[in-house]
Design goal:
Blueprint lengths: L2 H18 L10 E7 L4 E9 L16 E3 L4 E4 L3 E10 L8 E3 L10 E6 L5 E6 L5 E3 L6 H18 L1 H13 L3 H23 L7 H23 L5 H4 L1 H21 L8 H33 L10 H23 L1
Helix pairs in contact: 1-3, 1-8, 2-8, 3-5, 3-9, 4-7, 4-8, 5-7, 5-9
Length: about 325
């Protein structure tokens, strides 16, 4: 095996490990708190807490003391979340300056969207992060403040999506030139941007469990292709990786959409959210590829000759995790 190839392989493995260890695939689906004004001083509170690693979400909703319940709270179990509903009356009728808290959110990787709808037709949205689990309710926010929130959400969503990054890693291992890599990543970007928009706008959707199983299968597909390339053979994936990247990118776009489709976005804010969320996804994807390139160059500068087995690590990583996730997620689908 050529030392340059080995160094490239080590770089890929180290870059993947640096990102993958603190992350978890598809467990960063945001929560949603909707505050809808029903009358001058009466509001309906809907708190949708996503299922977290198969269990009810550890974060709870804490409303201000001045918000007095006037109905019995209800809880409804959905496929991917628990929906809590309550009607409250607010002393003075105004929610301006009220603070809504989410105790327990700081121990998770979950963001929360807060959406406020008023009788006069105005709406406000807030993005709450685990580092500051509270929302101070104000009037409408400037568009650029919301844009920054959506960029951050997209960036976080891709970096927490281990399966998406593993697919990108597999493409990088297979592609043999910088130019072809740029074309391949661009093809993947165009494809998942299309289905991200389609899913967020509500024109099509994919059930989460079968979708996750299909995404895992796309990763498993790359495993044998990597081995085929090692052995000097060829295939459509090796000759034209951008075609495969585009086809599977359509699939991954539905996965990216889970970060927005559950957020209950105000209609007027959807174009901004789509654009800036997708920018965040692309920034995260580019950052991952640049990390691979940077670590590869660093390892090359060290000029050491690692064991021969190291060269095969990325291929086995892609194939093994792809197989494991395919079996696990298919079992979830079959088990209901």
């Amino acid at each position: 095996m050529r030392p340059t190839v080995r160094r490239r392989t080590i770089a890929l493995t180290l870059a993947w490990s640096a990102v993958a260890l603190p992350a978890a695939a598809h467990e960063s689906q945001p929560g949603l708190l909707s505050i809808d004004q029903l009358a001058e001083a009466r509001y309906q509170i809907s708190w949708r807490a996503p299922i977290y690693y198969g269990q009810p979400h550890p974060a709870r909703l804490e409303l201000p003391e001045a918000w007095r319940p006037v109905s019995q709270p209800t809880v409804r179990r959905l496929a991917d979340s628990e929906l809590h509903r309550l009607i409250v009356e607010i002393d003075g009728g105004s929610i301006h300056g009220s603070i809504v808290r989410f105790p327990g959110l700081e121990a998770t990787i979950t963001d929360v969207f807060v959406r406020v709808s008023r009788l006069d037709g105005t709406e406000s949205t807030y993005l709450i992060r685990p580092t500051r689990p509270l929302a101070v309710l104000r009037g409408e926010r400037a568009w650029y403040v919301s844009a920054v929130d959506y960029v951050f959400l997209g960036f976080q969503h891709i970096l927490m999506g281990v399966d998406h990054l593993l697919f990108v890693l597999g493409l990088v291992v297979i592609v043999d030139s910088r130019r072809k890599l740029i074309v391949t990543i661009t093809s993947f970007t165009v494809a998942h941007s299309v289905t991200l928009a389609v899913a967020t706008l509500g024109y099509a959707r994919a059930p989460s469990e079968p979708l996750n199983a299909a995404i895992a299968l796309s990763i498993l597909f790359l495993g044998p292709e990597i081995v085929r390339r090692w052995r000097g053979r060829t295939s459509l994936t090796i000759r034209r990786p951008w075609v495969v990247a585009f086809v599977f990118g359509l699939l991954h776009g539905f996965g990216f959409a889970s970060g927005l489709s559950t957020a209950g976005l105000p209609e007027a804010e959807i174009p901004l959210a789509l654009l800036t969320f997708n920018v965040g996804v692309e920034l995260g994807q580019v950052a991952f590829v640049l990390l691979i390139v940077a670590v590869e160059r660093s390892v090359r500068a060290l000029r050491f000759d690692p064991p021969a087995w190291v060269e095969y690590a990325p291929g086995y990583l892609v194939g093994s995790l792809g197989a494991f996730w395919t079996i696990e997620r298919t079992w979830r689908v079959l088990a209901g």
